[in-house]
Write a structure and sequence with these properties.
The protein is α+β, with helices and mostly antiparallel strands. It is built from 12 helices and 10 strands. The longest helix is centred in the N-terminal third of the chain and has 32 residues.
Length: 380
Amino acid sequence: MIDISPELEILLQSADDLPFSNQPWMLVIAILIGAYVLSRLIEWGGHKLLDQSDRWPDDSINRIFFEEIHMPLYVSVALGGIYGSLSVLGFVESSYYLVGAILSILVVLWMRAAIRVGSQWIEAVNATESDYEFSPIFKNFWTILLLIGTVISLLIIWEINVTPFLASAGIIGIILGLAAQEAIGNLIGGVSLYFDDTYKTGDVIILEDGQRGTVTDIGIRSTTVLTRDNILITVPNAVLNSASVVNESAPQRRKRIRVPITVAYGTDYQKVEEILLGVCDEIPLLLESPSPRVMFREFGDSALVFELWAFVAHPFSELRAIDQINRLVYDEFDEADIVIPFPQREISFLDSKQDVTPQQPVERTYDEEGAELSRDESNN
């Protein structure tokens, strides 16, 4: 068991001058009461500070820190008072399990607070419009690192000898390495995806097999994608790291759409451009900047081919915007008497049927010099 009583020597020596220094139980009561009052003050002050503070928004890093730190702080003060009381009574060495339980509770409490502060800090930074963008995989790494530190601390507190475990660590490491090749590959793939800045949470991506959806979570092993059909797809990070992934939200979430428009030959192209740009002004889904453009693409077989370029704020708005454009363009062309051409075919029929007698096959015979023989000569 860790002996941290030397840290209390100064405090205990200063207590010798107190009137009740020869009465340990009175000193124990004073320590417990003081620890309780101090812990309650810390708890009350923390809630009061968080409730009345208008300087910090709900998602600010300062508020997150104080929300998570004040509970372990007042619990630590209370447990510290108990430990101090045991030191005064000389029970630290004899109360092995009680002291170990107190220290273990402190370690777990502070570990929990550190995990929550780190996780919420990453989410708060990602929510702000800053140049920093942390992948959720770092939240997982932070959690794993603290859990490992907690396990090591608990082993030290309870004086558990890990030497026998280290003796077989080499063999166990080889076995785990062979068994967890895929998991390790996914872990490395997730780190590579982050540093390559392939995508982040909220991006719309297209997988190599054509599936399209929004990235909802980037874990240590896999990435979760939510499609427009409300279906979750879990893809291993190693697969994504080696596949071609199209990120429609990078470098910006806005996306340009292209809508082909055809009109009949002889139509005033300036009138067509005016109508198309006017339609864009009536559709809220289309962005004003960059402004929409109309391109005269080509002279088609039976039509003048135009293409309308416009931007939408989110890739998933593309289909709705195209639907609204097509509806309004059809109505506007109808009012302006602009013809939308379509392919036409002509089918001709014969006026009278002609009887056609099929010819019978004729068998012909030739001599050695290639001359045709008559039927009688061939029979002979």
